[in-house]
Amino acid sequence: MTKNDYVIICGDFGGVWDNSKRERHQLDWLEQLPFTVLFVSGNHENFDRLAKYPVELWQGGKVQFIRPHVIHLLRGQVFHLDGYAFFTMGGAQSHDIADGILNPYAEDFEEQYWMMRRMGGQFRVNHRSWWKQELPSDAEYQEARRNLDAANWKVDYIVTHCAPDGVQDELGDRKYLHDRLTGFLESVKVRAKFRYWLFGHYHENKIVCDRFVLLWEQLVKVA
Questions:
Q1: 20 to 30 A Cα–Cα from 123, which one of 33, 116, 165, 191?
Q2: 70, part of any domain
Q3: Is 27 helix (H, G, I), strand (E, B) or coil?
Q4: How many domains does the chain have?
Q5: In this structure, are residues 95 and 182 in contact, taking their beta carbons and an 8 Å threshold?
Q6: Are 88 and 61 spatial neighbours (Cβ–Cβ below 8 Å)?
Q7: Inter-axis angle of helices 180-191 and 138-150, to 10 degrees?
Q8: For residue 166, what are the CA distances in angstroms to 61, 143, 182, 188, 190?
């Protein structure tokens, strides 16, 4: 492989988090690999830190360069890579927040935090382990529709973190809740023409309905 080859991570990259020495070392290690690393956002990203990177145009869509060859593919974009068109729509709703989101600035934060820990609660801390930007904004949905319109709703591959409503139902026997993003992706599934849809989020390796490829701990070659 060379830097002209791409490995695409289907969300939950997590490599931009705390700007620690360890993190910088890991990003430098990724930069030294003999290929280019691309990723869409998942629901476990530090969106405050990602927002500090400038947005640039690359291969037909908007990106953020974390390193010269470690690149965040923004939501609602259509990229042209090696003669193939890729539509990207990162993001997902967290499933591990049933007991709520804690405010780190609340007077009783420490008490709430340790109580949740003792109870084994499913919770996150706002702007520390959870960000509302895990789901797309209105502007990102609008941009996605504009770019799909420009492509006549025809691409080769779709790369997301979560799945459309119907695919999600097949995976979880309806245990996964529908939300605005999964509903939007369902509308893309119905309208768009594509070869394969690649996604992550559900911690399995599985092919669903022939063309939907759930990736967790494996790589697949698509082009």
A1: 165
A2: yes
A3: helix
A4: 1
A5: no
A6: yes
A7: 10
A8: 28, 23, 9, 12, 10
CB 3 within 8 A of CB 37: no
> Coil, strand, or helix at residue 19?
coil
Tell me the pTM. 0.96
Which helix (H) or strand (E) segment holds residue 213: the answer is strand 212-214
What are the DSSP E strand ranges found in 124-200? Answer: 124-125, 157-160, 196-199
Residues contacting 88, CB < 8 A, separation 6+ = 40, 61, 73, 74, 75, 76, 77, 78, 79, 158, 159, 160
Q: Residue 222: inside a domain, yes or no?
A: no
59 domain residue, yes or no? yes
Could you list the pLDDT tens digit for every one of the 223 residues in the chain? Answer: 999 999 999 999 999 999 999 999 999 999 999 999 999 999 999 999 999 999 999 999 999 999 999 999 999 999 999 999 999 999 999 988 999 999 999 999 999 999 999 999 999 999 999 999 999 999 999 999 999 999 999 999 999 999 999 999 999 877 789 999 999 999 999 999 999 999 999 999 999 999 999 999 999 999 7
When computed from its CA atoms, the radius of gyration of the chain, rounded to whole angstroms, is 18
CB atoms within 10 A of CB 204: 13
CA distance 89 to 205: 20
Give the structural domain span for 196.
6-94+130-214
Assigned domain for 191 exists:
yes
The domain that holds 18 is classified in CATH as 3.60.21.10
Q: HSE of 3 in the Cβ direction (CA atoms, 13 Å)?
A: 8
Q: Length of the chain in residues, anyone?
A: 223
